[in-house]
Amino acid sequence: MMPATCTDAMIELATCKTCAATAVRPSTDAAYQAMGHAFMDYRLNGDATCTEAGTATATCARCDATDTHPGADPLGHMADPTVEATVSVPGCTTQGYATYLCQRCGLPYQDDFVSATGHRPEHEADIAPTCTKAGYKGASRCSVYGEALSERTSIAPLGHRPEHEADVAPTCTEAGYKGASRCSVCGETLSERVSVAPLGHSFSGRTANGNETHSSICARCGDRRTVDCVYGNIDVAGIAVRVCGVCGDVIDPTGGKVAAADLFTPIPDATGEELDAGAIPEGTELIVRKFDVSFGDEVEAIEAFTIAYETDGIVLPLEGRVRVSIPLVLDIAEPFRLVRVDVTPETETTPSSEVWVQLDYDYADGVLTFVSDRDGLFLLVPMDAILRS
Prior knowledge:
Low-confidence stretches: none
Mean pLDDT: 85
Shape: rod-shaped
Oligomer: single chain
Number of strands: 35
């Protein structure tokens, strides 16, 4: 038999019970397995350097086997006092340190580290935006090395803040204006004051005053305008009666009083159709009156009639074009002209005037149809009649 060693189990001799043959084999008995090394006393090998750890070695107490493992820390560098260190100052993002020469290994090494100082920002002045110009938030850079720390950031223009001057409405006689506007921040004028012309009077109605004048009232301001009547002669039973073509005032030179019913006959079923929005004054009724008398030698008229839009006896002027259709039986075969008698009343600066304006018309099935933008007196005259202008 061979006893167990550090690395091998005991070798035993076995004999066969049948034939007495023998054999050598490792023992299977747990008590006789390999014992393992017995490393007891580790000793430093003295091989540590400045940067690497040293080792320690021990010899097995049962055999000559040895075991080596780390046994000493690195020695660390030792500055050579005869060599002056080189100092590297810290930067914004890098450490500072001193470089020494090791007297043990002869190699340079770094020590005495100082933390990085960090950047020292220097900011560009911000420029505030205005109403019309962009501004920016200033960039920043390191005041030590000039490194860019942030970029300039644009700021959009603010835009104007309008402040409107109050509008002044025009009157009949005085101009108004649409107020100017300016920016409440920078004071820049955004829009100029726009003048609005006087509206002018809107006189409506023609009321006879009984003294050869008639008056109208301005629908906007209430001013009253009184002007002289504009008379024309009409034969009534052989008497030249004077009739104002504007207000209908009648003067009988014999001293009598001619009634309106003696001069005019209302024509029923006349109609008016607006061609322009708002042309017919609201709340009015179309009144058509046909003259039942002649105009004497002054006017060779086939027929004469007036049209007016009235309410409560007051005539309101048209505000646009109206198509008028009038039932009118004419006992003539020859063609004729349709004219409107436009009378301009006398004013403080101008005398009265009369202009005949020829109008297109259609006459069929006893209905006369035409378009007019004014009311007043209308005449049917022969084709060869001389028009007044």
